[in-house]
């Protein structure tokens, strides 16, 4: 009896619920029909859509600006970077900044450490550098799918310093020159802008009909004499030529144009290893152009 | 006082007060230093002219030859700057008295134009649409010819619109003459604004074309407005006479051989000059906050729609008004895009086009709100205005006084511009932010090399007491103890400082969104 009463109660409840749901559905549909019938004209709808889009645009702009500012490093982050590098940096270290315009790093990095601002760190040959401290504002730049210098590092240690990511990259096979040609020749070097990157240049300035020559006093050679050369200004028309002569051997000729960028060259001196022949750099360039050279002896 | 006058006066007064209050803060750019230096000398020669007419004429001729342009704007700023100093506004703020006055007048003109186009809401919004961006605010505080040119451009267009709308020939002639005079003044302020006459002529030509089309297709549609197009508007004729006269009068270098000045005029307009490093049309899109760009685009689109509707309905009155404002806003952009604009930094070549665009944008905003929710149009207008103009205002406030280095969100701000190697500032103005540090930390009697900063600007900073009296200007880096370097196009000057001082580590810097605008480098011991 009780079970039958319970079943009847449940059936009744179900019917009531179904009727209620049906009523809601029909009411909702009627409401929608009424709203559709009373919808604003197309122009007004379009205007409302445009208003909504503009409001969203304004909000998005405010949000984007706010978020951008909060992604940038703060003075505390820079101070922390200074403290970290003062404590842990060693001779042979270099600080690379990413993105390259993050130049407040120059002010924060201890004076004894060189700073390199480039967006193409992978292409740098980094002579004389054992470890690279990569300072990146990762929230405002993309480091890329692969970490910089991947394949050239023996160890990497990343740490977050506020909004800066500081990664110490220990180079597996650092390029450690036994001599810098400019130093050996006693020739002054100048910092110059080469393709947007600050480079220390040994400048060779030929005049028409008279190539510029730099004779380097005899120095002990190793397996190679290598370096880079660039024509400045980059807008210079024509082709320049750098002749690298080691002892009495045939010179290596490097042709450079304004668009060549930071062009590498290498003279194999394995056969002369241990010997100390004179090295001569000879440059011929279009009028008004200068060759920026960086050359080292590799042991 | 009517509501129209109250709004105009309110905006004008508020802008003037704000400009006077802020004018001492931004640094002096190379362009401003050149203009003000010439302005001082122009004012000096003009004062001396009654006593020494021949010398004054020679001096002014040499000056206009050196500047390669007429000297009206220089004279205006020169006299205003001298007045500002006498009023005690200081050697930096005082020289900007003229531009503060112009800014106030421009706001009032924008409000009046807005009222004529769409009533009080447009009058309230239009000046905000123009000023609430970092770039326009920065240009509004620089004593250069650009803002004065923008004011004359806007007022001339408004007067021309009034001249065409006037019912009687007498008032039409009077307003036409005024318009011609304003065109002449604009061309004498900035020679490329001779394009104002082109706008008027183009407008008249298009009107004539429309009239001819109507005559063939809808004979009955010819109305009262068509009568006005049959004759050449007075403004065009007056401009034809007054523009060459005014340009020549203000360009003493060509008094002896006026025809030879034609080449110089074309060069000042931008003809035959090398391409700019930054496309001005792209710069307009990249230099403004994106909501402001959207607002200006909305204004253009709305005006084009109104023009199309007016043409469809043969409503000549509406058609010529829309055409006029569209031409006034777009011709400067088109000319800049084809290289017929002076090679000035930032938005300066386009500033005169921005004022009509701001008017159209404000009107479009009110029209959109009215169309979307007629019952709550003021509330919707307010919300739209707030959300479209506040981002620009906030950017202007947060970047002040470095607004001339600010870029919009589409480019990624100053950082995005730095990525692309775009100019970081107009010409050394950011150095102003380092003067406090230099005064505080430089060793006594230190010799300072100023790289990328106009010598006239340094002299002004000294007069204003911003550079310590014992600091000496060094002739070169070799004899300098410290170098103040403005980041400009190339960086070799800065790298020379690295070479000379043996260090690439600055001791102080000015940054906008972490992008360096100016640095101080020192020799050991020169910074305490």
Keywords:
heterodimer, A: 299 residues, alpha+beta, 6-stranded antiparallel β-sheet, 5-stranded mixed β-sheet, elongated, B: 528 residues, mainly alpha, 22 helices, 5% strand
Explain the overall architecture.
The complex is a heterodimer of chains A (299) and B (528). Chain A is of the alpha+beta class and 299 residues long. Chain A contains five helices and 15 strands. In chain A, the strands form three sheets. In chain A, strands 6, 7, 8, 10, 13 and 15 form a six-stranded antiparallel β-sheet that branches. A five-stranded mixed β-sheet of chain A has the order 2-1-3-5-4. A four-stranded antiparallel β-sheet of chain A has the order 9-14-11-12. In chain A, strand 7 (189-194) and strand 8 (197-204) form a beta hairpin. Chain A is elongated and about 120 Å long. Chain B is 64% helix and 5% strand. Chain B has a five-stranded mixed β-sheet with strand order 2-1-3-5-4. Chain B is mainly alpha-helical and 528 residues long. Chain B has helices at residues 3-22, 30-48, 53-67, 72-86, 97-118, 120-131, 134-139, 145-165, 169-189, 195-217, 224-230, 234-249, 261-269, 280-287, 290-312, 316-337, 351-372, 377-399, 413-419, 435-441, 455-463, 492-501; strands at 447-451, 472-473, 482-486, 508-512, 515-522. Chain B has 22 helices and five strands. Chain B is globular. Chain B starts with a helix and ends in a 6-residue tail after the last strand. The interface between A and B is large, with 40 and 47 residues.
């Amino acid at each position: 009896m009780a079970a039958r009463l319970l079943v009847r109660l449940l059936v009744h409840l179900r019917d009531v619920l179904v009727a209620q749901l049906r009523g809601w559905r029909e009411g909702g549909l009627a409401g929608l029909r009424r709203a559709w019938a009373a919808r604003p004209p197309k122009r007004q709808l379009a205007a409302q859509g445009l208003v909504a889009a503009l409001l969203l645009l304004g909000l998005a702009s405010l949000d984007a600006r706010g978020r951008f500012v909060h992604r940038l490093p703060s003075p505390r982050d820079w101070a922390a970077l200074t403290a970290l590098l003062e404590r842990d940096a060693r001779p042979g270290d270099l600080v690379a900044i990413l993105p390259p315009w993050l130049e407040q790093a120059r002010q924060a990095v201890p004076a004894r450490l060189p700073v390199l601002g480039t967006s193409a760190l992978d292409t740098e040959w980094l002579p004389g550098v054992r470890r690279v401290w990569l300072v990146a504002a990762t929230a405002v730049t993309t480091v890329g799918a692969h970490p910089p210098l991947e394949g050239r590092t023996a160890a990497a240690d990343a740490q977050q310093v506020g909004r800066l990511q500081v990664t110490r990259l220990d180079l597996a096979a650092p390029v450690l020159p036994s001599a810098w040609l400019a130093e050996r020749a006693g020739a002054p070097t100048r910092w110059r802008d080469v393709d947007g990157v600050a480079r220390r240049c040994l400048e060779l300035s030929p005049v028409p009909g008279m190539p510029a020559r730099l004779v380097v006093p005899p120095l002990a050679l190793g397996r190679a004499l290598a370096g880079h050369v660039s024509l400045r200004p980059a807008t210079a028309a024509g082709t320049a030529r750098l002749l690298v002569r080691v002892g009495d051997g045939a010179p290596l000729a490097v042709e450079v144009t304004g668009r060549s960028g930071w062009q590498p060259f290498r003279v194999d001196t394995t056969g002369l290893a241990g010997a100390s022949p004179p090295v001569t750099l000879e440059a011929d360039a279009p009028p008004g152009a200068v060759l920026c050279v960086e050359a080292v002896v590799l042991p | 006082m009517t509501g129209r006058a109250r709004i105009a006066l309110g905006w004008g007064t508020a802008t003037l007060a704000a400009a006077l209050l802020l004018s001492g803060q931004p640094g002096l750019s190379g362009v401003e230093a050149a203009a003000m230096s010439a302005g001082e000398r122009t004012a000096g020669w003009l004062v001396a002219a009654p006593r020494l007419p021949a010398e004054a004429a020679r001096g002014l001729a040499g000056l206009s030859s050196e500047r390669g342009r007429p000297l009206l704007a220089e004279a205006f700023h020169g006299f205003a700057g001298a007045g500002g100093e006498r009023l005690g506004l200081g050697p930096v703020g005082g020289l900007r008295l003229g531009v503060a006055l112009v800014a106030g007048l421009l706001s009032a003109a924008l409000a009046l134009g807005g009222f004529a186009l769409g009533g009080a809401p447009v009058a309230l919004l239009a000046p905000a649409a123009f000023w609430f961006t970092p770039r326009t605010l920065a240009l509004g505080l620089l004593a250069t010819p650009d803002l004065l040119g923008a004011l004359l451009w806007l007022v001339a267009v408004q007067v021309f619109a009034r001249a065409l709308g006037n019912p009687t020939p007498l008032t039409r002639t009077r307003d036409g003459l005024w318009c011609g005079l304003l065109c002449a003044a604009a061309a004498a302020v900035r020679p490329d604004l001779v394009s104002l006459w082109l706008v008027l002529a183009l407008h008249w030509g298009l009107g004539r074309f429309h009239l001819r089309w109507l005559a063939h297709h809808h004979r009955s549609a010819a109305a009262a407005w068509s009568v006005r197009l049959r004759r050449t508007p007075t403004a065009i004729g007056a401009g034809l006479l007054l523009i060459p006269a005014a340009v020549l009068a203000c360009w003493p270098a060509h008094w002896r051989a006026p025809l030879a000045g034609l080449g110089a005029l074309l060069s000042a307009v931008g003809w035959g000059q090398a391409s700019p490093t930054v496309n001005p049309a792209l710069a307009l899109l990249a230099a403004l906050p994106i909501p402001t760009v959207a607002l200006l685009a909305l204004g253009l689109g709305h005006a084009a729609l109104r023009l199309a509707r007016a043409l469809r309905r043969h409503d000549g009155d509406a058609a010529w008004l829309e055409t006029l404002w569209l031409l006034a806003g777009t011709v400067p952009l088109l000319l800049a895009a084809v290289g017929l604009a002076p090679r000035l930094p930032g938005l300066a070549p386009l500033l005169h086009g921005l004022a009509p665009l701001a008017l159209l944008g404000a009107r479009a905003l009110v029209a959109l709100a009215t169309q979307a929710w007629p019952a709550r149009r003021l509330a919707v207008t307010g919300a739209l205005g707030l959300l479209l103009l506040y981002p620009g205002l906030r950017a202007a406030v947060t970047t002040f006084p470095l607004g001339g280095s600010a870029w919009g969100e589409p480019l990624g701000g100053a950082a995005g511009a730095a990525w692309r190697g775009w100019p970081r500032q107009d010409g050394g103005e950011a150095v102003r932010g380092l003067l406090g540090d230099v005064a505080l930390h430089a060793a006594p009697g230190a010799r300072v090399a100023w790289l990328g900063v106009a010598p006239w600007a340094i002299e002004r900073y000294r007069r204003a007491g911003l550079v310590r009296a014992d600091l000496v200007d060094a002739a070169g880096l070799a004899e300098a103890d410290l170098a103040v370097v403005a980041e400009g196009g190339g960086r070799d000057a800065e790298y020379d400082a690295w070479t000379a001082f043996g260090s690439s580590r600055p001791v102080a810097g000015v940054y906008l969104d972490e992008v360096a605008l100016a640095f101080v480098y020192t020799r050991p011991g020169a910074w305490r």
